[in-house]
Amino acid sequence: MTSHNVGELTAQFPLLNELIELKEISWFNPSVTSLEKALPYVGLDSEDIRDASMRLKRFAPYLSKVFPETASLKGMIESELVDIPDMQKRVEAEAGCSIPGRLMLKKDSHLPISGSIKARGGIYEVLAHAEKLALAAGLLSIEDDYSKLAGDDFKQFFSQYSIAVGSTGNLGLSIGIMSAKLGFSVSVHMSADARDWKKQMLRAHGVNVVEYEQDYSVAVEQGRKEAEKDPNCFFIDDENSKTLFLGYSVAGERLKAQLDQLGIAVDEEHPLFVYLPCGVGGGPGGVAFGLKMALGDHVHCIFAEPTHSPCMLLGVHTGLHDEIAVQDIGIDNVTTADGLAVGRASGFVGRAMERLLDGYYTISDESMLRYLWELNDAEGILLEPSALAGMLGPQTVIRGSDYLQRFGLSPSVMNNATHIIWATGGGMVPESEMQKYLNASL
């Protein structure tokens, strides 16, 4: 990767000075455009999402059989969308400004199987790989009842193959648990900031956990190198995988169905704002793409990153994408939001989505921990710190007067707005660990 002169960069991009000072800042994207104009840059379309959706439907009987917690949804991995009115009042009081419209929480934190947003993309990519192998071997046809994959003969077949991934934790959980269930030999390369309980949970599922003293990028790089040595090993690349991205994107059509069921319109007079915590970018990027495809230009997607790990904001704002890391400008990439502790953003997601994302902001560890405590106190919902990154979003938007004006989002229109905080993790955090988060927030 290229070396960078920080003085030259800050002269060209003055916002970086505040980023380096670890301030909570926001930047609304001047390049955002319509879905029609932006779509060619993504390189994927509605047919790709439909293909992913159909694959998940084929696997639903299998998932329902081997993961009983998915049976009530007939093998669909999906989360609730809930109102958080008491939290809305708390945020308004703290911010000293009104948040017009409705504040909701999308509880990907409590997705079945692995308890985070990564259950969408991670599990999907493992399933897509398993299907490809089984179809090629003549053991499966797409007309079959996929519950047959639970049989010992399939486990024996998959045991010839291995899967590897680099992770800060949650992606490793989803890929490790799913791969092991199918019968694959699986290795998860974990960065230094990964939580011990996540490593222990993976080992309990029979997953080989490889630990590193360095950050996410090193874990990914080493995982990729190990996989290259074995022709039967499939490396899941969180930085560049279109399959992962599409697994996340199915969330768009599903959220649309939930909004329709609740009678919530999304149109010119009823804008939707979605606040997505961002690490390397695959999860929020895929969800944002799916939302845009399902709901069009009146859904506004905004990424939230820790002040210590603002890799996507840095990459998109400078136009350098994955050619620059936060460490290059003196930011340490050390945050309590372990799922977001990524120094270098996905170049694929940054370039594909830069015209479809309305903005980016940073949030301090202190703010995330404070919101963690407040949400539990107000609504009885417990999340990981990283999942609270979205909570600063509504007030960031309300204060972005130039941004609101640019999109014609007048006060009367904003009164009809829906704000969704995308809760990305926390459902599997052990009680003792959650208590530590709560104590740290006091």
Low-confidence stretches: none
Q: What fraction strand?
A: 5-15%
Helix content: 40-55%
Lateral strand order in the biggest sheet? 1-10-9-8-11-3-2
Please give the alpha-carbon distance between the first and last residues: 41 Å
Structure summarized in a few sentences:
It contains 20 helices and eleven strands.
Architecture overview:
By secondary structure, the chain is of the alpha/beta class. Helices cover 46% and strands 13% of the residues. A seven-stranded mixed β-sheet has the order 1-10-9-8-11-3-2, with helices on both faces. A four-stranded parallel β-sheet has the order 6-5-4-7, with helices on both faces. α13 links the parallel β8 (272-277) and β9. The protein is globular and about 60 Å long. The relative contact order is 0.16. The mean pLDDT is 96.
Topology:
Layout: H1 6-12, H2 15-20, E1 26-28, H3 35-42, H4 46-66, E2 81-83, H5 85-95, E3 102-107, H6 118-136, H7 152-158, E4 162-167, H8 170-182, E5 185-190, H9 196-204, E6 208-211, H10 216-228, E7 233-236, H11 242-249, H12 251-262, E8 272-277, H13 282-295, E9 299-306, H14 311-318, H15 347-353, E10 359-363, H16 365-379, H17 393-398, H18 401-406, H19 411-414, E11 418-423, H20 431-440
Helix pairs in contact: 3-15, 4-11, 5-16, 6-8, 6-11, 8-9, 11-13, 12-13
Distinctive features:
442 residues; alpha/beta; seven-stranded mixed sheet; four-stranded parallel sheet; 20 helices; 11 strands; 13% strand; globular
